[in-house]
Design brief:
By secondary structure, the protein is α/β, with parallel strands linked by helices. The protein contains 4 helices and 4 strands, in the order αββαβαβα. The chain has helices at 5-10, 44-57, 72-88, 101-106, and strands spanning 19-23, 37-41, 63-67, 92-96. The strands form 2 sheets. Strands 1-2 form a two-stranded parallel sheet. A two-stranded parallel sheet has the order 3-4. The mean pLDDT is 85.
Length: 107
């Protein structure tokens, strides 16, 4: 549910439809209607490491991370990718980009 996820989930009403929340940090308070939601946490730094390892295993000789450095999830994913790149002795370039499909394609 993106950057607004925690706020949306904290204001969930009993009559609202059930939701699935994809969060990058804990909700911070007890869920108001836990029977109406499923919450998934993303380990962003781990995800960045996994993506970088996969790219290197597939033969990449250099990595490019496309994302935003002002969004914690993107910053942590980049940090994870950078961890792997440094350990493997390959370069990683950061390309700033909006967080949507069209922006990624144009980057």
């Amino acid at each position: 549910v993106g950057l607004a996820g925690s706020r949306i989930l904290r204001h969930l009403l009993p009559a609202d439809p059930p939701v699935v929340g994809l969060l990058d940090e804990p909700l911070g308070a007890p869920a108001p209607h836990p029977d109406r939601m499923s919450l998934l946490m993303v380990e962003d730094r781990f995800a960045g490491r996994a993506a970088a390892r996969r790219a290197l295993a597939d033969g990449a000789r250099r990595l490019v991370f496309v994302g935003r450095d002002d969004i914690a999830a993107s910053r942590l994913r980049c940090r994870g990718a950078r961890d792997v790149a440094e350990k493997a002795g390959v370069g990683l370039d950061f390309v700033p980009c909006g967080m949507n499909y069209g922006a990624g394609r144009s980057a």
